[in-house]
Amino acid sequence: MPRTHRRDARLAPAALGLALALVLVSSRASSQPLADFGHLNPDAPPETSQFAFLVGQWDCAVHTMNPDGETFRDSTATWTGYYILDGWAIKDDWTTRRPDGTAFHGTNIRSFNPRTHSWDNRWLPSGSLQWTYFEAEQVGDTMVMIGGAGRDEAGEYLDRNTFHDIQADSWKWRKDRSRDGGVTWVEGVSRIEATRVE
Fold first, then answer.
1. Which residues share a beta bridge with 162?
2. Contact 191, 176 (CB under 8 A)
3. How many other CB atoms sit within 10 Å of the CB of residue 80?
4. What is the rounded distance in angstroms from the CA atom of residue 187 to the CA atom of residue 144?
5. Distance (Å, whole) CA 147 – CA 163
6. At 189, is the secondary structure helix, strand, or coil?
7. pTM (2 decimals)?
8. Cα distance between residue 104 and residue 127, in whole Å
9. 42 in any annotated domain
10. Is 139 a member of any domain?
11. Which residues are 65's β-sheet partners?
12. Would 2 be classed as within a structural domain?
């Protein structure tokens, strides 16, 4: 899939700032018991720390657009992140309930690709069991994922998921959706506010 998002050299100072902030976030988080969540491998690409804020367990408040495109529904979820592959990659698990009350689970696997200087992300949801690909990169003080191409009742779509307002014990997430291959976006079709579980 051709890349729909390019790096901007002007963001380099901001990106460096975020990297340092995320190292601090990771070190603050590591003061909590993280034995169950693993540890970053010192030989892994240093960029692996860019997604370190996901490591741990999170309670999530979720706000999702209904199919009518106008109303929203609120729900809750649990998001749990781990280091895997001896600390070379990150796996995070999503658990929530559908509107009909049935359980829904999904898993992300994230690894930094030194060849492309971006993140390779794979999402596997329960039910369909279809791997979905996202490419991600650090943009300023956010982490931006683009991909997840699929089809629903309204036709084909492309998603852009952005992690923002990243703190040691909280972060936010926003899904935008495009129906024209990334030319225009409907922002905020889903939003998440995550709080660390102590």
1. 144, 174
2. no
3. 17
4. 13
5. 15
6. strand
7. 0.79
8. 8
9. yes
10. yes
11. 72
12. no
Residue 67 DSSP symbol: T
What are the Cα distances from residue 171, in Å, to 50, 83, 123, 196?
13, 18, 20, 9
- Tens of pLDDT along the chain (198 residues) come to 434 444 343 333 333 333 333 333 333 333 344 458 999 999 999 999 999 999 999 999 999 998 888 889 999 999 999 999 999 999 999 999 888 888 999 999 999 999 999 999 999 999 888 899 999 999 999 999 999 998 888 899 999 999 999 999 999 999 999 999 999 999 999 999 999 998
Confidence at residue 174, expressed as pLDDT on a 0 to 100 scale: 98
Are the CB atoms for 146 and 4 separated by under 8 Å?
yes
**CATH number where 62 lies:** 2.40.128.20
User: What's the full length of the chain, in residues?
Assistant: 198
Among candidate residues 143, 196, 166, 181, the one with its CA nearest the CA of residue 34: 196
Local structure of 181: helix, strand or coil: coil
Residue pointed to by tokens 């199919």: 67
User: What sign does the CA torsion over 85, 110, 53, 77 have?
Assistant: negative
Using one digit for the tens of pLDDT, what is the confidence trace for 54-67? Answer: 999 999 999 999 88
Residue at 84 is within a domain: yes
Question: Domains in the chain: how many in total?
Answer: 1
**What distance in Å separates the CA atoms of residue 143 and residue 154, rounded to the nearest whole number?**
27
The alpha carbons of the chain give a radius of gyration, in whole angstroms, of 17
- For residue 115, give its domain range: 9-196
